[in-house]
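Shipment paperwork, digital attachment
Item: protein structure file
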Amino acid sequence: MNIQTAVDAINSKRCLEVQYDGYRRIVEVHQCGYTADEHAIMLVWQVSGGSKSGEPAGWKLLRLDETRSLHMTEEALRGPREGYQRSNKAIFRIVARL
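Attachment content:
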């Protein structure tokens, strides 16, 4: 998946709908960039949907190459969410952030 959609979501302050691990999720992208291994990744606050962990909301790191679909919604981002830190050691090279 293209990282530009995550960048656009940050810049427009809108949520994304993502298919990830077989679950539909609505997320607020707080940061996106690349891991040290050059995998595109995004730090999100999951607003709703399913997850392997069973937690329907909260902080998640999602690899863009593991998403099955990704598109912007009309829903406004309500962040930055509590606990947000502008740096994250999982994101080696940040492309965009709130």
